[in-house]
Request: fold
Amino acid sequence: MKENTTEYVILGILRNKSRTGYDINKVVKTRLGPFWDINYSQIYPTLRELEKGGAITKRVEINERGQNRNVYSITNEGKNKLKEWLLKPAKPEKHKIELMLKIGFGEQVSNTELIKQVQAFRERHVAQLENVYRIENELKAQLDQNEANYFMLLSVELGAKFHLSAVDWADTTITKLRSRDK
Amino acid sequence: MKENTTEYVILGILRNKSRTGYDINKVVKTRLGPFWDINYSQIYPTLRELEKGGAITKRVEINERGQNRNVYSITNEGKNKLKEWLLKPAKPEKHKIELMLKIGFGEQVSNTELIKQVQAFRERHVAQLENVYRIENELKAQLDQNEANYFMLLSVELGAKFHLSAVDWADTTITKLRSRDK
DNA sequence: AATGACATGTAAGAGGTTACATGATTGT
DNA sequence: ACAATCATGTAACCTCTTACATGTCATT
Reply:
């Protein structure tokens, strides 16, 4: 039993708006990226599979520049498929945090090097925090326009908490490492 | 350029103690698991590769039960390899949080179902928090015995922050979803 | 003339999961 | 008798990343 989550990410993104593969990628990068990233080499083949299975339909449109684009729309079948998946228990969270390994084995290198690593980590998460706040503001501004935004906002708030605690940990840890130096 | 992180996880675990593949797996599950999981089908082949490359050596021992076990030890070469890796910038963090997708697309299902999902998420993270606290206590109790424990403790504290904010988010979100019901 | 956005894809390889396979010893 | 722990592995499959490949249009 293969449960291909990529399919459901795409169905979810198409659930209230038709889009091209290119558009789907943009939504993933700007909204889901840090918590469920996928890329073109997964998106395009999966779109064809979903179409073959009847969950979405394709129509060829021409954009403002006169270029062809394949616009995909969810079908009722696809919407049901999505809903069924939403009811199933979510898979446990998985994380790959290389920095935790590098700090955990940290007695092998100098404090200066560790501080550098933590600072880079901090910067990554500050950047992602800013991104999350931008998304939050966008969603809040459109809360009355679409009920879906409320739920996306709940989801994004978890991201905000994660990134905040990452920055927080980094600050504490840099201080600790610095005081150890003396 | 393949940078196989599994190799470095293993070198890191072997850096201050010789162990079997079975032992390495236990360390991963009990200490690194939530932030960098690997399993037997990665561990055993990688041990053989590291041995072939001269980073570790194998010797066959017999345990208290009289069973054979392959005990691996890090070499100087392996320690240098580990240190070089520790100095390289850590790869950006990656997360797979299916729950965020399920909440994000949540207007498709009932509030009751969403609350169930968030509760399950909460329970997962409460369990992991307890685990992290147990590890913290173990490490704190042995802080003077081994300098390495100090760094592992720093690393584990990030885990504690993550799980705490997950539980926190879950509580807030369950309240929000319940009040929406009425 | 160059850059960035729009647009769609493939191939190869690396990384990771799950199921299978086996067998001894220890504790309840 | 049964479950847990110790111990080592393979095979098949799925997922994911990276590099390659191409072309248009709009803006600077």
